[in-house]
Amino acid sequence: MFDGAFLAKDSALGRELETELYDSGATRHMSPYQHRFIDFEAIAPKPIGAADNRTFKAVGKGSMYIDVPNRETTRCALLKDVLYAPDMGVTLISMSHIAATGCKVNFDCYGCKILDESGTLIGEIPVADGLYRVQHTKSFDYAGRVKDVFTIDELHRLMGHISHDAARDLVRKGLVLGVMIEDSPSSGVCAACEAAKTTRKPIQRYREGERTAAVGDEVHSDVWGPAPVKTLGGRRYYVSFTDHSRWTVTYLMRTKDEDFRHYQSFVALMKAHHGAAVKLRHSDQGGEYLSNEFNTYLAEQGMKRRLTVHDTPEYNGVAERLNCTLITKPSDHVRRLLEGEGTAGGRGSAGALPKGLRVMHPVEEMETAGLAEVENAVHSEELAMAAVMGDAEGLQPSLEEVRKRPDWPKWLAAINAELESLKTNDTWTVVERPPGVNVVGSKWVLRIKKDASGAIDKYKAHLVAQEYTQIHGINYFETFAPVAKIASLRLLLAITARNGWAVESFDFNSAYLNSSLDEDEVIYLEQPPQFPIKDPKAYVLHLKKVLYSLKQGGRKWYKHLCIALADLGFKRTEADFGVFYARNGPDLTVLTIHVDDCTITGSSKTLISTYKCKLGEKYPLTDLGPVSWLLGIKIL
């Protein structure tokens, strides 16, 4: 066998040329050039010993063609059962295997001659520096040898719209093979690049002109909907009209085209009750505002219209902010929306609430008739309001709201579990309130975790810090913590679908509590609201570990998790610091991190289970099994 340093892939010979050594001591054909294989099969790592006791590993096998020199010509020969050893620097051709095919091999001082069974010379390998070797310039022996010719604009598009200079450099340096660039000038600007890089001016932070001072001078309007659930009257939209004083009238609608009729009603209301005519309507460019009927009416009434620029709701801020208030605040407005009768306003109302109120209870439907019975239904109504608002997308109910809900015992259990977890992890010590120091506020964050079907999966409660009360340089320093990019997750899901890999998920319980604060990070925290340990006026919590919503919390947890994953053999990808991978022979395992939510996949389901068990030994976690819902992506 040859010296291991000569065989190593980082030798000068291996870097510059593709080399084939005809070796009488080699027991198998071996090659590091995977692109030369015409068929390939991964195998369990197989050690290959060199003369200096260096070991290479073969991880695959297959067949490949080689060009055998024969004086002035070459002959293409097929080698079968070739081992693929990526760490080797040259291809070894076993002469004993060639002889086993019936060929004759003669060695002399001039070279090595290979003859077939009839004695015809089929190859003559010259000797150089005591080695029977053949060298080729690096090339790929496959269909890609036929080079495609592209213009620089075509190559720019094919390579994901990278710059023209970068595309030329890749081809010139040999980093892109099988491609030639046509010697023609660029056509100029790429329309796709120009559109993708177009930005708009920032939204102004100051008002244009003075705020109107008289009733009817300017009315702000917007249509909201469709709502995920219809009212009892079958309505899914509402339109709002807001005057200069922020007096607001809303009308419920079944369809958007009812806006014109309700605008006429609003104009009549302003004339009848306030003696004022509407002079200017401020709205976006919704199609319901641009009909011929609407345009004719405005012209006849002498009203002007101010439309915002397309896709800039910020310039319709009064009406958009009103939508946020109406939808996220349980109020008398929501009660009327549930009923779907009459209209409701922020500080004014058109129409009256009917004498009989119908309340939808979460468990059963109750009917009331008359004002006296309405008062008796107030408590049930509040439960209904809280339940409805708790189901709204993205809404986190407050502690006061959940106390009125019928599922309060489940919320209380979640809160007690959070407090017990904090106590078990020795998160803080209770100390007397020190004078003259910054004490960070605390609050409860409550939310319902749902599965892919929308059913309730878990009630979650977190005691979090009010990070806006932290002071930089005293309570925190660095804050950045990477998470897996959505593009990485989509790519990983595509790879798993193609390869048929299992994809499973899990999340860490109270993840932030596993990381500690540095000595120079002194943080005092207010006691849990409504669940104090001692007198909250005299005592505060001195944090020893990271709590959710601390500005440095995500970074501390990420650094702690990186150390644990490195101990298990995982490496971090350079393209995305939220993606880690581990290799075990031919098997690959990939782990993505998004704060405390993790997704794991790989070619071996056994390894997936093993790694989950090892992580479970380091941190308490919840195994969610096969993934069905991932960061808003439904997995089918």
Question: Care to give the gist of this entry?
Answer:
With 636 residues, this protein is an alpha+beta fold. The chain has 17 helices and 33 strands. Residues 1-6, 10-15, 140-146, 330-335 and 341-394 have low confidence and may be disordered.
Fold and architecture overview:
This protein is α+β, with helices and mostly antiparallel strands and 636 residues long. The chain has four domains: 4-143, Beta Barrel (Cathepsin D, subunit A, domain 1); 147-186, no CATH class; 219-354, Ribonuclease H-like superfamily/Ribonuclease H (Nucleotidyltransferase, domain 5, 2-Layer Sandwich); 412-634, no CATH class. It is 26% helix and 30% strand. Strands 6-1-10-9-8-7 form a six-stranded mixed sheet. The radius of gyration is 37 Å and the shape is extended. The chain starts with a helix and ends with a strand. It comes from Hermanssonia centrifuga. This is Integrase catalytic domain-containing protein. One of its GO terms (molecular function) is ATP binding. One of its GO terms (biological process) is DNA integration. One of its GO terms (cellular component) is nucleus.
Poorly predicted spans? 1-6, 10-15, 140-146, 330-335, 341-394
Apparent shape: extended
Instruction: Give the number of domains.
Output: 4
The rounded distance between the terminal residues' Cα atoms is 54 Å
Total of helices: 17
Largest sheet: 6 strands, mixed
The oligomeric state of the chains shown is single chain
Beta-strand percentage range: 25-35%
Structural class call reads alpha+beta
Strand order of the largest sheet: 6-1-10-9-8-7
Radius of gyration: 37 Å
Helical content, roughly?
Answer: 25-40%
What is the typical, i.e. mean, pLDDT? Answer: 80
Task: Count the beta strands.
Answer: 33
